Amino acid sequence: MAGKAWRQLVAVASLLSVLWLLPWASAIHRSDFPVSFLFGTATSSYQIEGAYLEGNKSLSNWDVFTHAPGRIKDGSAGDIADDHYHRYDEDVELMNSLGVNAYRFSISWARVLPEGRFGRVNPLGIEFYNKLIDSLLLKGIEPFVTLNHYDIPQELEDRYGAWLSAEIQRDFGHFADVCFAAFGDRVKYWTTFNEPNVAVLTGYMLGTYPPARCSPPFGSCAGGDSDAEPYVTTHNVVLSHATAVEIYKRKYQSKQKGLIGIVMYTTWYEPLTDTPEDRLAAERALAFSVPWFVDPIVYGDYPPEMRQVLGSRLPTFSPEERRKLGYKLDFIGINHYTTLYARDCMFSSGCPLGQGTQHALAAVTGERNGVPIGPPGGQCSTSCLTASRRWSPTS
């Protein structure tokens, strides 16, 4: 199932990435695609819901982060956002008018479980998402539900440091269980995390997203260790994903007939020059992005390129954790925005400090000799999708 779903996803992504770059793309019509092809829209809870303290919702990490003076340049926050909490019916009508037949949204953890596993399920939160899901289905729009898109109850950050602690695995499992039980009779596509690699890098290496932890040369934060914390938090994210997948596979999938996977932020890397050093740098940069999270989920361990560079800084999986990773996902989703050039920093000098790829001993750029790698907004060739082979059982 996982291999089939992944290959189908890559086929769709390949098709769209090629089609939209063609000069005749504006002549493409929906009728050119199979009836089963899904055209959709996507959002995240913090970005659109608003109602940040209504319906017994607690503060999320993003509420606290954006309310801190100086965090956001213009002082704005998602307190109201698009007011989706009050206007979801209008939003569903807008989607219906666009002709989409899929909608990917995330559930606010702080709305469903304001205190995590330390408190009760919030019935008003369950009611809101039930109404949203029912409204979508009434219009023939398939709900794709993400359990975590960057936001968590601030309660968990305050209690034990959230993703820095293995405690988060129990909390995420409880949250997933509650959602599967409440919505799984109608939701057939589940995503554990959306772009967890972004949340880890920005939250624990660069310090630009909550909880704003970092250390020089990546930034000057009040606390954090950019050389260690990204790997601790990723380990807990991967095992939280595995916990949710195990719960779904063991308790719900046979009855609910749904699928569960993960969605990653994907950047493809091409070598800046054709030297062996730059080719290896491109491979390392890739390994430190999507495979960092997906290899353990599919193969049971981190990429060898990461082990080679990081050594003991990279956590290991216990026998029990490897057992849990044995429950395989059904699909891998990709959000692809751009392709970059990578150059070597393992054998070469003069590399910038503080880039997200610094630990991969690679420096990245969008240009070669002043020429952009691709047209603005479309820096993807078919080569950027060949990474699918890494996780396909047919490779």
Q: Which structural traits does this protein have?
A:
395 residues, alpha/beta, TIM Barrel, two-stranded antiparallel sheet, 15 helices, 9 strands, 14% strand, disordered N terminus, signal, GH_1_N_CS, GH, beta-glucosidase activity
Task: Tell me what the structure shows.
Keywords: Disulfide bond, Glycosidase, Hydrolase, Signal. This protein has one domain (2-267, 315-336): Glycosidases (TIM Barrel, Alpha-Beta Barrel), CATH 3.20.20.80. The protein is 42% helix and 14% strand. It contains 15 helices and nine strands. The chain has helices spanning 2-19, 45-48, 61-67, 84-98, 109-112, 123-138, 154-160, 167-183, 196-205, 229-256, 276-287, 290-299, 304-310, 319-325, 388-391; strands spanning 40-42, 102-106, 142-148, 189-194, 259-271, 331-344, 362-365, 367-368, 371-372. The radius of gyration is 21 Å and the shape is globular.
